Amino acid sequence: MHPSPGMSGVYHLGIERALDYARGATELGVREFLVFGTASTARDNEASAASDPDSPVCTAIRELSRSFPECRFWGHVTLAHYTEHGGNCCVGNNGEIDWELTTDRFCKICATLATSGAGIVLPFLLRPGAISSIRSYLQSNGLEDTAVFSYGAKFRSSLYGPFNRSTGITESSFGDLQLEPWDREGAMEKIRRDVSEGSEGLVVKPALFYLDVILSARSSTELPLVAYMVSGEYMMLRHAAATGIAEGRASMLEAHTSILRAGADLVISYDALDLLKGAQ
To answer: Which domain holds residue 225?
Structure first.
């Protein structure tokens, strides 16, 4: 266990410490966990390490799901941690994105995570047909009990920097297909498409800067709606507390309340345990 670079109050955990962390979280009532790995040193064009069943992420999900069967452990799926070029895609011999290979790799990584015990997979693959392809692949391999949630609205935000530095990612926009911050209608179109493809839940990312999108999404679907308070939003509030601009726990609680008030069912948060401890 060691502090996460650039993110106060956040730590990188090995398997044993992750089990201890989850145990403490479940005692506070947490039942949903999103499992991330740091950037892999084994990189190639196809992000092969991402589908290794003995990878740190798969091993963690396997041990966590065995130890806490009452909880759901989410597998976040990206190629960017594992590709030699740092993009969220595979590249063909012509230097262009090979979308067929990219989709195939996402399907196989999702299947590996599902086999490891992930209750939900959350693929960072935003192109049309992605969700239906992944769902079909899981179903054809007997893994239909693992739910597929989609990034219904993932924006190209300036607020991902602390997370990228923490996990050792060199951010690349190659192949990411993220929405521009102004594109509210594009977000709603993407949400409608993911619903039509069978997504079982939707994630809006970031959260605080996109409360209007959360509100609109809530009015358009009854699917579980999840808002991701990203690292930059979290760190802004931490810095505000550290410099006396805002009272720490009260401002963090207010921020989470605003996200839920906009219509989110769940918030992916770096501060969940501190908020829950303060509520006791």
So the answer is: 2-279
Quickly count: other Cβ atoms within 10 Å of residue 54's Cβ: 9
Q: Residue 233 belongs to a domain with what CATH number?
A: 3.20.20.70
Number of domains in the chain: 1
Q: What is the pLDDT of residues 50-70, one digit of tens each?
A: 999 999 999 999 999 999 999
Which DSSP category does 11 fall into? E
pTM of the predicted protein model: 0.94
205 catalytic, yes or no? yes
Of 108, 190, 205, 277, which one is the catalytic site residue?
Answer: 205
**What is the amino acid identity at position 60?**
A
Q: Is 117 helix (H, G, I), strand (E, B) or coil?
A: coil
Cα separation, 199 vs 135, whole angstroms? 8
Is 108 considered catalytic here? no
